[in-house]
Amino acid sequence: MDRIPIVPDIVVGRLPLYLRALQRMAQEGQSITSSQELGERLGISAAQIRKDLSLFGEFGKQGTGYQIDYLVEKLRQILHVDKIWDMVVVGAGDVGRALSRYQGFTDRGFRVVMVFDKDPKIIGSQIGSFQIQSTDTMIQAIRENCILVAMLAVPADQAQEAADKLVEAGVKAILNYAPINLGVPEGVYVQNTDPVTYLLRMSYYLAS
Amino acid sequence: MDRIPIVPDIVVGRLPLYLRALQRMAQEGQSITSSQELGERLGISAAQIRKDLSLFGEFGKQGTGYQIDYLVEKLRQILHVDKIWDMVVVGAGDVGRALSRYQGFTDRGFRVVMVFDKDPKIIGSQIGSFQIQSTDTMIQAIRENCILVAMLAVPADQAQEAADKLVEAGVKAILNYAPINLGVPEGVYVQNTDPVTYLLRMSYYLAS
């Protein structure tokens, strides 16, 4: 692929939705789609989809639509999931356990390889195929394995300390389940996923 | 509060972040803040925060900042969480279990009141204080209790069917954990929270 111009963040945020919908179409046995069809599935206009994708090259021909397999492959390259990213889970409570056992990562470019907690009572016990490791040895373990991606599922009041350790260990991307904003240096990416903030976006629109 | 003009969706999306940061400041014993301080916590410009809040009225005085308690109260009114919303959880797998037991809802305006699953092997068993109920009786139970909010944590291939039932039962807001786009009628709100789409937003920026 040629050099890509700077792509707005909001466009980057839509690419995973395109990839997910296309992968689902492929699973359903479909081989060709159009920006119209994709748009209807996603509630995004066909023009927006064509414009977003055009930032990365020519993926479809006027009138014949998109080859789904080809577009999936290209989107995986663009989103850097033409490989598998190893991840750690920090925090082995309910959310951390659910993440550790979640089956939906591997075929979409990610896999959990280690789970950490600070509670001596659960360190050493198993979650699925993982033995819970101590956060005391976390920095070294992450460094040795060159892991760049972490999911943080500790209580809010422990989240910044854990994030600091992750950053020290070289982690560059943190999916944050703690309901708190993390301070991280430039070059480290955080995505927050707090169920209540999503619920509030909807309750705003509900007549009370 | 006076009649509110139409507020852009993107502003509505930031209000929960303001509320969360302000509640945290209050917890930490702080009583006054400024748009500067709030902006630094959130990585949002002070000007943006002032502009967003000004859509809803006058909340601070030039030079003296915001009274945190007052602004929290106002934001709770605006987001309709000056009451508690009852919620159902559909799907009692790992994610559904984590949501059912999550301690962070109640003091932020929501509470789980029922948990449903379609698997006869687990219907009747307990998650925390909830007895798992059959999805066969879900529509009636939701209607009788006038519940408007649901969290959907079933596998992707069961999600649309479950969402259709929720809509039929009168649910107006669905927090969707299944990695699939749901079709719902107008007037029903869906927020998607698929960990992989968030991870992909970050892996885009990581050199592979």
Instruction: Report the end-to-end length of chain A measured between terminal Cα atoms.
Output: 51 Å
Number of strands of chain A: 11
Query: What fraction, in percent, of the residue positions of chain A are helical?
Result: 40-55%
Q: Please report which band the strand proportion of chain A falls in: under 5%, 5-15%, 15-25%, 25-35%, 35-45% or over 45%.
A: 15-25%
Oligomer: homodimer
- Give the largest interface: A-B, 59 and 60 residues
Tell me the series of helices and strands of chain A, N- to C-terminal: HEHHEEHEHEEEEHEHEEH
Number of helical stretches of at least 4 residues of chain A: 8
Rough shape of chain A?
elongated
In round numbers, the mean pLDDT of chain A is 93
Which parts of chain A are unreliable, with pLDDT below 50 for 5 consecutive residues or more? none
The structural class of chain A is alpha/beta
Mind telling me the C-alpha Rg of chain A?
Answer: 20 Å
- Largest beta sheet: strand ordering of chain A: 8-5-4-9-10-11
Largest sheet of chain A, in brief, is:
6 strands, parallel
How would you describe this structure to a colleague?
The structure is a homodimer of 208-residue chains. Chain A is α/β, with parallel strands linked by helices. In chain A, 41% of the residues lie in helices and 19% in strands. Chain A contains eight helices and eleven strands. Chain A has helices spanning 9-27, 35-42, 46-54, 68-78, 94-101, 138-144, 156-169, 195-203; strands at 32-33, 60-61, 65-67, 85-90, 110-117, 126-127, 130-131, 133-134, 149-152, 173-176, 189-192. In chain A, the strands form three sheets. Chain A has a six-stranded parallel beta sheet, sandwiched between helices. In chain A, strands 1-3-2 form a three-stranded antiparallel beta sheet. In chain A, α5 (94-101) links the parallel β4 and β5 (110-117). In chain A, α1 (9-27) packs antiparallel against α4 (68-78), α2 crosses α3 (46-54) and α6 runs parallel beside α7. The first copy, chain A, is elongated. The model of chain A has no long low-confidence stretch (mean pLDDT 93). At the A-B interface, α1, α5 and α8 of A face α1, α5 and α8 of B.
